[in-house]
Amino acid sequence: MLAEFVVGLARRKDRLDQLAKKLSGKKGKLFPVKTDLTKEEDILNAFKWTKENLGPIHILINNAGYAETGYITDGDTELWNKIFQLNVIGLSIATREAVKDMKANNVDGHIIHINSLAGHRNLSPGLVDTEILPPYFAKNVKEYYETGRIIEAEHIADGVVYALSTPPHVQVII
């Protein structure tokens, strides 16, 4: 079951207002709330508003992010702090508040963190063409990767919907 309503948090409330207008007439409702996710007070106020006006939190989707391109040797500490504040601290505060509210209200909810490859690099390559890969899979894997398919935003959204459809005790890593 998907949410009947969504609270959207962003610094640029005008973008959320435009989205809410675009979605009007569709199932559900978007409530835009101006929030700077680099400021704990803003996050706490947004959660307070949500709980007071809409009830317990059931789903949190962290999708805010900020990045700059450049070399580590040219890095600016102030910029790194800004990125870290949003991408790590803001996410952690929102997650903490959602978990606290879910526990207080006995809600078996969902928390989804959406990030980019810029946010992490790990060694989890999936299927790899090695001697342990059965010949049938090896042939298909090579053919698939040769197509050059690139993931699209809709694929991420489908993954989020799937994750939300699983039982509360199931951990999904997409």
Description:
Residues 120-129 have low confidence and may be disordered. The protein has a two-stranded parallel sheet. The chain has a domain at 5-121: NAD(P)-binding Rossmann-like Domain (Rossmann fold, 3-Layer(aba) Sandwich), CATH 3.40.50.720. It is globular, with a radius of gyration of 20 Å. Helix 2 packs parallel to helix 3. The chain is built from five helices and four strands, in the order E-H-E-H-E-H-E-H-H. Helices cover 45% and strands 11% of the residues. With 174 residues, it is α/β, with parallel strands linked by helices. Keywords: Oxidoreductase. It comes from Rhamnusium bicolor.
What is shown here, in short?
This protein is of the alpha/beta class and 174 residues long. It has helices spanning 13-23, 40-54, 77-104, 135-146, 153-165; strands spanning 5-10, 29-34, 59-62, 110-113. The model is unreliable at 120-129 (pLDDT under 50).
